[in-house]
């Protein structure tokens, strides 16, 4: 899968990129919700992994954007500080999952695996051949 990571903490974003790479997924890291909106127009991901607390537009506001709602791209929200009410609000606004920080990677992996059948077969085939892939430089950071 192609995953757009929206995380303002570059070190957390890098950990998520490495985790996704190990699972055979491609990822791109952007540091703001506004940057993510730009990327959605340029390159449609299969999934958005969205931090709740971001500078400028927060995760809840991002989910409310018409461009995000109309895209029907699955969004997983992650946060270490959101309240239960905020988590519920994210789910009501269309997030498919809310993952608290610190992230339990086994849980995140199960969520990702549950989404794989929704991705076109060619994408799954590419992701399953991770041993054939060379490690390339990290995805761009916008």
Question: Which structural traits does this protein have?
Answer:
alpha/beta, five-stranded parallel sheet, globular, 142 residues, Rossmann fold, 44% helix
Provide structural commentary.
This protein has 142 residues and is of the alpha/beta class. The protein has one domain: Rossmann fold. 44% of the residues lie in helices and 17% in strands. It contains seven helices and five strands, in the order βαβαβααβαβαα. The chain has a five-stranded parallel beta sheet, with helices on both faces. Strand 4, helix 5 and strand 5 form a beta-alpha-beta unit. It is globular. The two termini are 19 Å apart. Residues 121-126 and 129-134 have low confidence and may be disordered.
Return residue spans where pLDDT drops below 50 for at least 5 consecutive residues. Answer: 121-126, 129-134
Tally of contiguous helical segments: 7
Strand order of the largest sheet: 2-1-3-4-5
Query: How many distinct domains?
Result: 1
Distance between the termini: 19 Å
CATH topology label: Rossmann fold
Given helix and strand content, the structural type is: alpha/beta
Radius of gyration, whole Å: 14 Å
Classified by CATH, the class is: Alpha Beta
Summarize, please.
With 142 residues, this protein is an alpha/beta fold. Helices cover 44% and strands 17% of the residues. The protein has a single domain, classed as 3-Layer(aba) Sandwich (Rossmann fold).
């Amino acid at each position: 899968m192609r995953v757009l990571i929206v995380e303002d903490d570059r070190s957390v974003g890098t950990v998520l990129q490495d985790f996704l790479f190990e699972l055979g997924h491609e990822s791109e890291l952007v540091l703001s919700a506004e940057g993510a909106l730009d990327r959605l127009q340029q390159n449609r991901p299969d999934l958005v992994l969205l931090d709740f607390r971001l500078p400028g537009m927060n995760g809840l506001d991002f989910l409310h954007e018409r461009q995000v709602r109309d895209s029907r791209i699955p969004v997983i929200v992650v946060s270490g500080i959101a309240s239960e009410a905020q988590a519920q609000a994210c789910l009501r606004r269309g997030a498919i999952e809310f993952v608290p920080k610190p992230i339990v990677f086994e849980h995140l992996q199960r969520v990702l695996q549950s989404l794989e059948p929704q991705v076109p077969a060619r994408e799954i085939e590419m992701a399953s051949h991770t041993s054939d892939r060379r490690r390339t430089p990290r995805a761009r950071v916008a």
